[in-house]
Amino acid sequence: MVRPLTDPTSTDLIPTGTPLLEFDRVGLQYQVDGKPRRIIEEISLSIQPSEFVSFVGPSGCGKTSILRMISGLSPAPIGEIRLRGDRIHKPLKNVGIAFQNPVLLPWRNTLNNVLLPLEVVQPYKREFRQKLPQFTQMAQDLLETVGLQDFQKQLPWQLSGGMRQRASLCRALIHQPEILLLDEPFGALDAFTREEMWVMLQNLWMRAKCVGLLITHDLREAVFLSDTVYVMSPRPSSIIHTLQINLPRPRTLDMYLTDEFNHLVADIRRHIHRS
C-alpha cells in the first residue's frame, strides 16, 4: 500500500520514544599487512524516527563505513546496529541511497531511472506490472517536486549535474524507505547548485518523513539539513561532539547568514580542529 506524502510545512518531525536505530559500542577494524588496524574505536548513539542526522569529521575516519553498516551491506563486525531492536545482519530493503555520483543507468530515461527500485524491491516488484500506472504517477509526482516534470524522457547525458542528482534523490525515495542514506550527494556540484539542492532535499525529506543520514564535509550543509550533527575524531574514531540543531523548519538559505547559524557552524569547526 502506498503511504501518502505528509505536509512538508510540519515542524513536529522527531517523535520521542523508542529509537528507530541504535548503535551499541560499534567498532570497525581492517587487516593491513597482516595486522589489525582500528578504524572506528567505538560509537554508541540512537536515532529517532524521522530524525535527520549528519556525520562530519576528517577523511578516513569511517563515515562512509557507518552508512554501509546501517544498510546491512557490511554489518557491524564489532558491537551492534539495531533497527527497532533487531540487529542488522543483512542488507535492508527499506533503505534509499544517494551517492556523490548519481549512477543513473545511461540507457534509461529519467522516469525509468526513478522507477528502477520499484522493479527490484519487494513488495513493489511483485506488483510492478499490475500497478505500473500508479507507480508511474508516484515517480512523476516526485519529479515535479524537484522541477524535472519536463525532463522525464531525457537520458542522463542530456541532464545537467544538478538535474541528475535530483533524479537520483527521487529514485532513492520512490519506494518510500524508512531510512535515506546520503554519502556526499552534492560534493561534485557547484556552490550555487549545491545550496539549491539543500532546500530541495529538505523538502523531499520533510514530505517523506524518513530518517535521513548524511555524510558531508560541508559544515554549513550539515547544519542546514540536520536535527543532530555528530562530530567524529581522526581514526581510530569516536564521537567527540554531538550538536542539536534547533533551527525552525522549513529552513531557508537566508538562515545561514544569521549569527545563530554561523555560531553552530563555528562550534562544529572548533571541535574538528581540536581533534
Give me some keywords for this one.
Rossmann fold; globular; ten-stranded mixed β-sheet; alpha/beta; 275 residues
Please, could you describe this protein's structure?
The protein has a ten-stranded mixed sheet, sandwiched between helices. Helix 2 (110-120) packs across helix 4, helix 2 (110-120) packs parallel to helix 5 (161-173) and helix 5 (161-173) packs parallel to helix 6 (191-208). The protein has a single domain, classed as P-loop containing nucleotide triphosphate hydrolases (Rossmann fold), CATH 3.40.50.300. The longest helix is centred in the C-terminal third of the chain and has 18 residues, at 191-208. It is of the alpha/beta class and 275 residues long. It contains eight helices and ten strands. The radius of gyration is 19 Å and the shape is globular.
Short structural summary:
The protein is of the alpha/beta class and 275 residues long. The protein has helices spanning 63-71, 110-120, 124-127, 132-145, 161-173, 191-208, 219-225, 259-274; strands spanning 21-32, 35-47, 52-56, 78-83, 86-87, 95-99, 179-183, 211-215, 228-232, 237-244. Strands 5-4-1-2-10-9-3-8-7-6 form a ten-stranded mixed sheet, sandwiched between helices.
Radius of gyration: 19 Å
- Give me the oligomer status: single chain
Shape: globular
CATH class: Alpha Beta
SSE layout and pairing:
Layout: E1 21-32, E2 35-47, E3 52-56, H1 63-71, E4 78-83, E5 86-87, E6 95-99, H2 110-120, H3 124-127, H4 132-145, H5 161-173, E7 179-183, H6 191-208, E8 211-215, H7 219-225, E9 228-232, E10 237-244, H8 259-274
Parallel strand pairs: 2-10, 3-8, 3-9, 6-7, 7-8
Antiparallel strand pairs: 1-2, 1-4, 4-5, 9-10
